[in-house]
């Protein structure tokens, strides 16, 4: 049975379609999805996935939030998360002011280590712990960068802002994520670090992937220009990551040729980098990351059989960051569900929850998969019912 949130998305799509004076057939002709699927979404029989909703929004020329409505968390959950992130939001708003109070000027080496530790916490999906510690780190780095500016201090501050972006994205606060990336760009400019500035463009491209291929492609191109002359391992890894971002943008637009081009370019750079570049701005760029992005692109383009074959051949190394492992498990759950393997889908969701509960709980594809499993299960198992209650369905 569809949930209220799912049916309201369909209702919003129907309302906006009618405002645009389009029939269902007319709208279906503008999106890379079938008329049948559109009909089922509007009547609440099928879940409106993130990719489907983004395509409809793009076709109608409206912001995707017009169709999605409020975040997919309960009011209590949202209030708690907003309270957790309020100190970070305040830090980002007051970025150009000295921190309140008398804070000692700490050694830059110590601050760099603290900023790196926060990156590690996020990749271990200890999001609340990182969120609580981040404002103090930003304040100390701001004081250092403003009173005794060094390249290292500005670079570490840019890294801390990137951590703020990652936390905001994973907890479902896109507006805060946009501000964090603006601050990251500001600090990267002061550090004169082209690789950090390029990573910021990569993140921006992913954040605007739903707005259409043109904008995402422009952002990726801007990042590629920043590292075009870089021949170091760091520069090659960042350039490769930008190609992976471009593949995600192209997948959103259903451009299979562009996806194949960027995946091939990324794989060539991964071969040149050698191994997983976990030491390069926490990107973990390498052959496995390319494989995971190739599978993700197939999933986005709804090539579920292809994505399933790829998912079932992936063997994640033991050193894979928890955040990446959990994301893969959720994606694997999606393709198992879409290809009719419901028990396997639920097993992967349970594994993702066990590996990274905070990240998995708020990931939009978790909700999409749980909702789909509820729709297709005649008698939902207790594990699925518990999972639905856990994410707030």
UniProtKB/TrEMBL annotation:
Taxonomic lineage from the root: Bacteria, Bacillati, Actinomycetota, Actinomycetes, Kitasatosporales
Name of the featured protein: Helix-turn-helix domain-containing protein
CDD domains referenced in this protein's UniProt entry, alphabetically: HTH_XRE
Organism: Streptomyces pulveraceus
Domain HTH cro/C1-type stretches: 13-67
Pfam families: HTH_31
Region of interest called Disordered, as start-end residue ranges on this chain: 1-21
């Amino acid at each position: 049975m569809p949930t209220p949130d799912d049916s309201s998305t369909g209702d919003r799509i129907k309302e906006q379609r009618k405002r645009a004076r389009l029939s269902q057939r007319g709208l279906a002709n503008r999106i890379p999805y079938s008329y049948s699927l559109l009909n089922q979404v509007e009547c609440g029989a099928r879940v409106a996935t993130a990719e489907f909703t983004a395509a409809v929004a793009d076709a109608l020329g409206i912001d995707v939030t017009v169709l999605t409505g409020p975040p997919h968390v309960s009011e209590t959950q949202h209030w708690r998360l907003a309270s957790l992130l309020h100190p970070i939001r305040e830090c980002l708003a007051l970025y150009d002011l000295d921190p309140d109070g008398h804070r000692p000027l700490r050694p830059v080496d110590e601050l760099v280590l603290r900023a790196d530790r926060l990156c590690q916490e996020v990749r271990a999906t200890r999001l609340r712990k990182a969120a609580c510690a981040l404002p103090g780190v930003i304040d100390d780095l701001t004081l250092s960068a403003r009173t005794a500016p060094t390249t290292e201090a500005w670079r570490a501050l840019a890294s801390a802002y990137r951590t703020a972006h990652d936390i905001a994205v994973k907890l479902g606060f896109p507006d805060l994520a946009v501000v964090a990336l603006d601050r990251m760009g500001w600090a990267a400019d002061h550090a004169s670090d082209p690789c950090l500035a390029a990573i910021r463009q990569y993140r921006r491209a992913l954040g605007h992937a739903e707005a259409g291929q043109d904008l995402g492609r422009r952002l990726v191109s801007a990042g590629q220009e920043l590292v075009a002359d870089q021949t170091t391992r760091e520069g090659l890894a960042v350039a490769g990551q930008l190609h992976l971002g471009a593949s995600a943008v192209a997948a959103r637009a259903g451009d299979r040729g562009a996806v194949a081009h960027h995946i091939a370019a990324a794989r060539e750079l991964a071969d040149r980098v050698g191994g997983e570049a976990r030491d390069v701005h926490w990107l973990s760029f390498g052959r496995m990351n390319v494989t995971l992005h190739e599978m993700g692109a197939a999933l986005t383009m709804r090539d579920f059989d292809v994505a399933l074959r790829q998912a079932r051949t992936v063997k994640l190394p033991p050193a894979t960051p928890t955040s990446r492992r959990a994301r893969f498990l959720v994606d694997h759950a999606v393709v198992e569900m879409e290809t009719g393997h419901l028990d396997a889908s639920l097993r992967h969701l349970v594994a993702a929850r066990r590996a990274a509960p905070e990240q998995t709980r708020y990931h939009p594809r978790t909700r999409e998969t749980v909702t789909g499993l509820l729709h297709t299960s005649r008698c939902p198992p207790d594990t699925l019912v518990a999972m639905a209650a856990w994410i707030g369905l």
